[in-house]
């Protein structure tokens, strides 16, 4: 509630904080996942994505939950990694380094930080690929595209 008031107050002064906050925790012993946007609008749901993920990843998560409503943690982790991989391929400014967290009763548990497996070999077939690769190296880039 406090976060919604702060963001709404800043928005009313025409000086919004350009952030969207995801809030996770336990409420009355049950898992809670909520979202507050830059104008103070708040909602909670069982699955939330922000930005581009709301358009791409959220439908993938909904589809997976329709197929199997009671997922194990490992199955949910696989769905999330698939969503992150799709988002990585769709956003030219994204990094393939991600972290996954799990909410337990008293604390957050960090699974691990890892790099998404990716393959940008399709760029080699483009006629302008070699030119962009050369320019990237001339500008000081140690790698181009998502080469791992």
Task: Please give a structural write-up.
- With 148 residues, the protein is of the alpha+beta class.
- Helix content is 37%, strand content 22%.
- It has four helices and five strands, in the order αβββααββα.
- It has helices at residues 2-12, 52-67, 73-90, 129-138, and strands spanning 21-27, 30-36, 42-44, 97-103, 108-115.
- A three-stranded antiparallel sheet has the order 1-2-3, covered by helices on one side. Strands 4-5 form a two-stranded antiparallel sheet.
- α2 (52-67) packs antiparallel against α3.
- The longest helix is centred in the middle third of the chain and has 18 residues, at 73-90.
- It is globular and about 50 Å long.
Walk me through the topology.
Elements: H1 2-12, E1 21-27, E2 30-36, E3 42-44, H2 52-67, H3 73-90, E4 97-103, E5 108-115, H4 129-138
Antiparallel strand pairs: 1-2, 2-3, 4-5
Helix pairs in contact: 2-3
